[in-house]
Amino acid sequence: MDDLYELFDRQDEPEAPVLSPFDKDEYKERKQAERDEVYGLIEGTTEKMQASGELFQTYLDVQARLDRYSVSNAILMTAQKPDALGPLKSYDDWKAEGVYVNRGENALSILEPGKEFQRADGSTGVNYNVKKVFDITQTNSQQRTTPTVTRDERLLLKALISHTYAPCDMKPSDAIPANVNAIYKPEDRTIYVRTGLDGPSIFRALAQELAHAHMDKGHGYLRNENNNIAYYASYILCKRYGVSTDMYRFDSMPSRYASMEPKEFRKELGKIRSVAGEISRDMNRTLEPKNRGPKERNDDAR
Where are the domains of the chain? Predict the structure, then answer.
């Protein structure tokens, strides 16, 4: 019986580890260093893209697949994992879904919106934080490849031509200039499409001219200033919907892009992404009527 009362005696217990006090300044410095590294990667990759048609094409391929992610994050994926399929999720988010990150995989850095703040001029800005994520190809998920969606060219063209959502009229024509498959006429608010073309040729030409029509806001539209945007937006659409892109050329960068400041060039990339997204949303209303198309976030960083 006496032995039982020995339980009340104080037992030697291992000392609890001594935790370092939280250093707010150190934490802020570490987070700022992370942001600086990511912003530096965006800047450096942007400059390389301006000098390399091949790298620029890689970026467009990434943006075509990761359509819901911002220009900045598509650039980050171009630099870190150009074969990313998406989605991109944190380790804990994957784990919560019963998916585990493969051993030895390195986390990828993206930017996500944080708290809003007020600038000195009274405007509202947003702080961005670095988020560590993993692409689905870095996990044990069974869905490791982009599902093949077979849509006949008639359905794709129907979605592209849909007059319910189109910003202009579209008409076949036998009077189009030589070597031109389609042309948007701002004065008519009409796209004229050459007759006798095959499906992919119609899609490529129509996608490019639809981009012009979407950008025409009715204030003396200057086609020449937007030719590059329309060309690359149509490339994204072809990649997104499985239409051949063999006709597109990336041997060199347009001189206008090569001479831009990196920030200005990213704004141009934003315009390409935006107009391709507008056309995609219109198409998906026909292709995926139940979902009404994916919602596009316009955040500067996601």
Answer: 24-138, 153-287
